[in-house]
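Hi all, a correction to my earlier message: I attached the wrong file for Post-GPI attachment to proteins factor 3. Here's the right sequence:
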Amino acid sequence: MAQLHWTLFPSSSLLLLLCLLPLLHASTGDSDPIYRQVSSFSLSNFPWFQACVDQCEKTGCVGKNCFQHCKFSSDGKSIDGPWYLQEPLYLRWKQWDCRSDCRYNCMLAREEEREQLGHKPIKYHGKWPFRRVYGIQEPVAVALSALNLSMQFHGWLSFFILLYYKLPLRSDKRTYYEYTGLWHIYGILSMNSWFWSAVFHSRDVELTEKLDYSSAVALLGFSLILSILRAFNVRDEAARVMVAAPLIAFVTTHILYLNFYKLDYGLNMKVCVAMGVVKLLVWAIWAGITRHPSRWKLWFVVLGVGLAMLLEIYDFPPYQGFVDAHALWHATTIPLSYLWWSFIRDDAEFRTLILLKKIK
Ligand SMILES: [Zn+2]
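and the right structure:
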């Protein structure tokens, strides 16, 4: 459920960026497209940062700090390391790492200066200035993603044990519960999503970003399908395909668009918010009208997820360089996932008992 990463970038900052873009571009003469994403720079500090990064990429140092990733000579060949590592691909990574180190250290230097002048933190490349720990970009978000992952695993495993070891099975060893397979897929997609969320927060490059976004969109799309199937009690295979097919086609197209055409944060946010809101509404309305014995859990989760969304909207800078709104949002999803899987287990038990009664 890293689906709200996008609110870190776009909306208001996207508009601001669109206005500033020509100015920024003209003021620096830089053709690096990444700099076009910069959203919260004031014009006065932008050239300073650019100059710092440029200088650092040449010398490999910011002030007294020098970085080993920047040790390549001007003719494009690596100075150190064995010959088999001196390939262009390796060098590209090295150059990339050098740039990343430079940006990070220029940002730290700039933030220190600003703090002394009594200014509040600003965003760099659309992201808050986080302090790295052992090279991990956002250690708190990584730890919370890992906790979320383990919570999903725990939930899925307890669901599995309940269905196959505690509740009675049909004569062909299938479960009575009609949504078993769907929740298995849900469990796998959410564990996959939290795994890539942890990777993305530890190292933010294009590949990890795309993997994280794609898994989050896949999870969100599938949960939407699942909410409709469960709330409307769709048990017939053909009807399930009718609901799922157009949504799967839409989500697949969107993921392909993001990965191979354009990583459009604004569009992605709209798609995710739309799917998320519809999903929450389906669950909320169902929770309102159903006689399900565990409907209060549904209410709690819908309310909790809704409130947690506010954390992403009221984005604030990381406290001490570590805990920002997005990290807190990842913290809130831990108890919510626990309650959610508890509802899923209740639902499995509830449906199984109903079906057993019918048979008798
Ligand atoms: Zn995240």
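Sorry for the mix-up. The chain has two domains: 46-117, 135-359.
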